[in-house]
């Protein structure tokens, strides 16, 4: 393990507290992304809809997110981070209002669609804003905080919703009223955030397009996605399957227990990033692929043996796999992509992760309906483990990823000079 020391604050740069605060909008909007998860059982009871309809509601979130990623990255690079973040957070507050008053499936569809659009914009512009505020020489801290903000918010959402909905009256109203307050504080942070002036875009082109990275950075994107995509797909699957398994294994539908399971999984995703931040990038990515593989093996054991311990292990390992894949992938992009293309690069990275995370669990759900939960989950776990192994092999073959996990050379694309290619050599 490589020893690392905290990067000094560059002269004239924003105070370190602002780098931490810049990550808060990402956390706040990701709290919303999963806050509805423990509440669907209440809406199913009150509104009355099938599991198939619930799948459609989930799919609307992914559709909104992917659609947002097609434009938000380019817009944030051309207009600046703040003009994208403020409308996105306002749309997230609107989603809270629709969720709190939802009395039909159509309302849930609209709320999830708005949530997906907001998350897509914030994951592009918000993560880039953290790097912008950090400035040259603090890419390590920026990559770590941006990545942890996403997974910590995703874990806090269902835990907060589970606790509030079990302990306070009017659960669907209370949960989203609290979340609206969190989003309001995020709006204040963005309003005051010491962001640099938007750089002139490197090139023109369409505002709506599949996000991409600059020439020469495609291999960095591909390596990151090869590990991040199986990891986030694993957490999405455990998130959707967990409540059903818990109900069968523990005989409980308690929303706090379901929320706590999700929180533990994403807490592992957050904690592991701090634990491995001094490792070289190829080691972080390889460990992420291995963790996802072991997580799917544990999931298969859980569904075949009805083991609570195996289910918990699957959640922890899946969370760690996503966290390491995310940190390794983001730090690869941060090390080379210039500020004028960073939001679009972040969008491309997340498209690569969210497409399989949206499609594979839905396919597994329909397969489970046809052949049973045990067989469907086993097939999914085997397929995802194979993808994770393939990602790990790609990383090991490309051992040129040799710098510390979030610690690129000071003379990188944000440092005013030419990117260092020393780490690119085998």
Shape: globular
CATH topology heading: Growth Hormone, Chain: A
Assembly annotation: single chain
Helix content: over 70%
- Determine and state the CATH class: Mainly Alpha
Tally of strands: 0
Alpha-carbon distance between the two ends: 18 Å
Q: What is the architecture at the second tier of CATH?
A: Up-down Bundle
Number of helices: 14
Q: What is the chain-wise order of helices and strands?
A: HHHHHHHHHHHHHH
Category by helix and strand content: mainly alpha
Radius of gyration over C-alpha positions, nearest whole angstrom: 20 Å
**Unreliable residue stretches:** 1-7, 406-426
Report the sheet with the most strands, covering strand number, pairing sense and barrel closure: none
| Strand residues, percent | under 5%
Number of domains: 1
InterPro entries: MFS, MFS_dom, MFS_trans_sf, MFS_Transporters, Sugar_transporter_CS
Keywords: Cell membrane, Membrane, Transmembrane, Transmembrane helix, Transport
Main location: membrane
Subcellular location: Cell membrane
In short:
This protein is an all-alpha fold. The protein has helices at 16-22, 24-35, 40-47, 51-79, 82-100, 105-134, 139-167, 171-192, 218-250, 255-275, 281-305, 308-334, 339-371, 373-397. The protein starts with 15 loop residues before the first helix and ends in a 29-residue tail after the last helix.
């Amino acid at each position: 393990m490589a020893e690392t020391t905290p990067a000094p604050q560059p002269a004239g740069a924003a105070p370190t507290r602002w780098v931490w605060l810049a990550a808060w909008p990402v956390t706040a909007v990701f709290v919303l992304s999963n806050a509805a998860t423990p509440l669907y059982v209440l809406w199913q009871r009150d509104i009355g809809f099938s599991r198939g309809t619930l799948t459609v509601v989930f799919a609307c979130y992914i559709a909104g997110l992917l659609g947002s990623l097609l434009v938000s990255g380019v817009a944030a690079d051309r207009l600046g981070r703040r003009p994208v973040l403020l409308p996105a957070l306002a749309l997230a507050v609107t989603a809270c209002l629709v969720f709190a008053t939802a009395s039909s499936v159509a309302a849930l569809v609209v709320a999830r669609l708005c949530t997906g659009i907001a998350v897509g914009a914030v994951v592009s512009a918000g993560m880039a804003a953290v790097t912008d505020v950090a400035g040259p020489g603090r890419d390590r801290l920026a990559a770590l905080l941006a990545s942890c903000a996403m997974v910590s918010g995703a874990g806090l959402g269902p835990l907060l919703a589970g606790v509030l909905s079990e302990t306070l009256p009017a659960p669907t109203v209370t949960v989203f009223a609290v979340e609206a307050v969190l989003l309001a504080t995020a709006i204040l942070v963005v309003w005051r955030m010491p962001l640099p002036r938007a750089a002139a875009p490197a090139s023109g082109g369409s505002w709506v397009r599949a996000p991409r990275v600059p020439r020469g950075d495609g291999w960095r994107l591909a390596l990151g996605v090869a590990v991040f995509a199986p990891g986030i797909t694993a957490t999405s699957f455990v998130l959707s399957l967990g409540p059903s398994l818990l109900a069968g294994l523990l005989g409980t539908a308690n929303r706090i227990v379901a929320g706590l399971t999700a929180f533990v999984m994403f807490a592992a995703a957050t904690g592991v990033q701090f634990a491995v931040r001094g490792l070289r990038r190829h080691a972080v990515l390889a460990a992420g692929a291995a963790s996802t593989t072991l997580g799917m093996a544990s999931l298969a054991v859980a569904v075949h043996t009805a083991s609570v311990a195996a289910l918990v292990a699957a959640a922890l390992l899946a969370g760690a796999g996503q966290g390491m894949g995310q940190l390794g992938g983001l730090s690869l992009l941060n090390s080379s992509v210039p500020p004028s293309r960073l939001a679009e690069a972040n969008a491309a990275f997340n498209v690569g992760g969210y497409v399989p995370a949206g499609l594979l669990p839905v396919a597994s759900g329909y397969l489970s309906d046809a052949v049973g939960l045990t067989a469907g989950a086993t097939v999914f776990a085997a397929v995802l483990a194979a993808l994770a192994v393939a990602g790990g092999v790609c990383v090991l073959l490309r051992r040129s990823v040799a710098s510390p996990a979030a610690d690129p050379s000071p003379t990188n694309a944000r440092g005013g000079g030419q990117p260092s290619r020393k780490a690119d050599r085998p």
